[in-house]
Structure of Protein ovary overexpressed:
Amino acid sequence: MPKDRAHGQKRPAKDDRPPCKYGSKCYRKSTDHKKNFRHPEMGLQRDAGVSQDAPPVDDKVPEKPTGEDSSLPDSPGDVRESIKQKFLVEMPEDFYDFWDFCCSLKKESPSDALYELLHLRLVGPFDVLAGKLTNKKASMSDDFLCHWRYFYDPPEMQTVLSGDDKTMYHIGYFRDDPEEMPVFLASNVASEGCKIVKVAGNLFAVLSKEISKALKKCDNPQAKLRKLNGALVEFAEKKGHSLLESSKERPKPQSATFHGAGLVVPYDSKMGVGYRKLPLSDTDLKKLLAKFSDDREEGAHKDRLQELVTWIHIANDECDYGMGLEFSIALFCAGHASLHPSVNMLGGLAYKLLRREPFARILSAHLKRRNKSPYVLG
């Protein structure tokens, strides 16, 4: 009798759940874990200590991350569907209205409408509207997920405005869930680090702030800026976009996270389920991660990292998925290639447990193509 049918157990004809990494040595007892992962060779299980059976930190990024899609289906004729196909998320209405506004400024090249005065270009999903981003530009569909993705951009952030090439200042939509609309637009200066700064609640409010910043600089042509601001006010009012909107409605974040944009996951306050704090302060965690480098990963600091991984698996067993996501964000923000396997494993698992699978795919694709300069197709 085949092993997978021992003890009367029958393997289902098709099971799309990811396999449990522990295999026949799985120590986990929770029904939620058994529901989310398949165990092809359970056999006779033994009771084992958590620290003994916790999976070690992987040493290499897989050549092809799980879930990476190499197929290139035809681009949908509808631009909204095309953006969703390529980036796995939908754009809010202000995105499309902002494109129309830039078309009114510079019909022949809307993507460059703001460059002369503000040194900002419309990029990312805007390239679909500009007709620049077709399936001929990519060798596999996951390439699109990294188009104009900067080094410190987490899966939650989608760049739409690119600024100075030297500082790598850029602005993008930030959303907590890939199936929901963004909660705000944020900026990052990739040359300086992982810090994400909330800017405004829609692109028109973002542009209003950028114009205000430029007006304070004496070397800017203020007459042209004021004319641009007048056109902005008129167009935004016509379309119903507030220039004072700071953010969409958002639950209070459970954690600030290393990048500062905050972490929001489903949380049952009565049961205390969904998130728990890491067993290490932010200060101590930063000190620990500072000991890693791209070419050196052995030592006591790696053992300490493995201990934290064990705690995260325990938290996952008890449905506190936010802990693993917070930790993976911290590792991602550290920026060391030696930590990428751990980011991929822990972050990917957290997104899947939170039912945010598109973010898992974006993360995996980004880690394969992560560079100091933004990844740009074309």
Notes: Residues 1-12, 41-68 have pLDDT under 50 and may be disordered. The longest helix spans residues 222-239. The two ends are 55 Å apart (CA to CA). Residues 79-239 form one domain.
